[in-house]
Design goal:
With 712 residues, this protein is an alpha/beta fold. It has a seven-stranded mixed sheet with strand order 9-8-11-10-12-13-14, with helices on both faces. α22 crosses α24 (665-681).
Length: 712
Amino acid sequence: MPNRSALHQENLEKIFNPSSVAVIGANTKKGTVPFDILYSILSGEFNGLILPVSPGKKHIAGIKAFKYVTDIDDPIDLGVIVFPSTVANLALEQCGQKGVKSVIIISAGFREVGEKGAEREKQLLEIAGKYGISFIGPNCLGLINTDPAVRLNASFARQMPAAGNIGFLSQSGALCTAVLDYAHAKGIGFSKFVSFGNKADISEIDLLYYLMRDEKTRVILLYLEEVTDGRALMQAARDIREQSGKPVLAIKSGRTQEGASAAASHTGSLAGSDDICEAAFEQAGIIRCEHIEEMFNIATAFAYAPIPESNRVAIITNAGGPGVLTTDAAVRQGLQLARFSEETTKALKKALPNTANIQNPVDVIGDATADRYEAAMEAAFRDENVDGVFVILTPQSMTDIDAIALQVVEAAKKFNKPVYTSFMGETDVASGIRILQQNNIPHYILPESMAKAFSTTCHFGQLLRRKAGKTDGATPASGRLKATAILQHAAEEGFNYLQEYEAVELLKEYGLPAPEGALATSEEEAARLVQTAGFPVVMKIQSRDVMHKVDVGGVVLNIQTEAEARAAYQAIMSSVSAKLPEARIQGVYVARQIPEGEEVILGLKRDPAFGPVILFGLGGIFVEIYKDVSLRVAPLTREEAMDMVRKIKAYPLLAGARGRRPRDVGSIVDAILRLSQLAMAHPEIRELDINPLIVRDEGEGCFAADVKILIK
């Protein structure tokens, strides 16, 4: 990590675990942020020294107040600035003079309000840099540490949440208050709770690395409104998973981009910012959630239960209908109903009445008491074919809901396998649900939510067990130099994209397959070149003003003679001149026509947050209609490249479905990896399309039939 990041990790220790806190700008006016912050620290029973700084006040809430930070004789571990934004810089300057290295700036009125606010934020960063200060904010709700040894509520949240093992990081302060209220109603506790606001200094990346090391945190939740350094976010998630085994769950708002400008290539139009974010999160192992309820459904599964060894589940219910609904939900989420061993079947048959269903799902019948649930859970948990148990309950007149809930709690303590519950209803089952929540048993209102949570934790377990792959090797220096020369020549001439014959030469330097070809500037030259290329031949217009050649009649296929080549040259020039009279035409590219095969697309787009993004999908003229594509952030491992190919819906066509001969998938993977190398080596490439990439039968390779490269 850079030095500034290392400094943040050191200073975050005092932010989360201070022995003394100065509330800088505190007042006695109830209902204001300065008062509420001080009151939160007091009412949260902070186990340290509280030092109000309030010019004009000698005491606040019975505590001695100081005019300036520099008037305080005691050492200050944490400064919480609540002064207005116009004087927050002066308060931070005093923190620096006093030697305070760890600060939270609650105040609003910075970058979020416009140019003047942005200038004030810049001043904060300059002061922080001068004194070696790290700060959270500005424009944030604050921070909570529920550790009993600390009990710090340096926020204006209404109440101190219960202690737990979930860490929550949020860019939105308003969302934080809603989350705390939701969690309180569900009995969910937190280890750390942070609103980081404008993240002018300490970012979500710094906080993620801190929570990676935090022993009190088992699960990390993240709410983001913008991703400013996507590559660092991906690396942080990988490091957290590989070094601590903790999952990172994220909600990223802003999924749609209304009014986005049209892209110049297929890849540019297909790889939207949210699609890239979705793919990057998946690639890094970040679990993206749609909304708060889904996030906590999954988070409690991670926080309260072991990660399952596999997707084999047993379902225990006292009603047939809910058992069927849960089965459907499980299958839709890719789970398997466990096949019980003979020993399990005998145990169930012995313990349950003749009317009970002893197959999976197990129906203990509507009049079941706690002993039947106990026997069914005991048998299921002991079965080696079962890696998780779903317990469903519907309230009948004879159902002892609390007793059954307690049996679930005992089973969870006894066996090291996850148990998820769904006590269906609201009023009648409320006390049972409360028992489950108080004992950290995952509970779900809907079977679908339960199945989704189990599927997600199971997939994460597979990631934990998977060894990290290595990215493909670099291209030889000579290839990079030649490619750079091609790109520089176009840039020096003032062009923003390469002609196809230039693009083909660049691809070849990276080992990407492309047919031999040359540029013709007359009918006679075209006729001569077709003899060299060998029939059949394809001819394409070359103009920096023509992006989509087919649309303007700029492509002629299957040319078999010199006469056809002359006629094709004339037809192309006439059609393009008629449809685009202002187009500057360099000539016609003549190349050997690639034999037929499956048409796919390979692409590259440079995203401002994540950098180079590789696209793969079903290609040809219908690529933007079907939009059957997958995305990954470069550089790629061979496993990631293969995953890209398998991910598209049309993969069975490539694999040889319904008696078709399989295509050369290995050559596609090689091409993706070489494109990834090219992307990393040449940041001046803005967008790139290989469409179509013609994929021949297995063992026959693939070939780039058309290439577009846009440069900065």
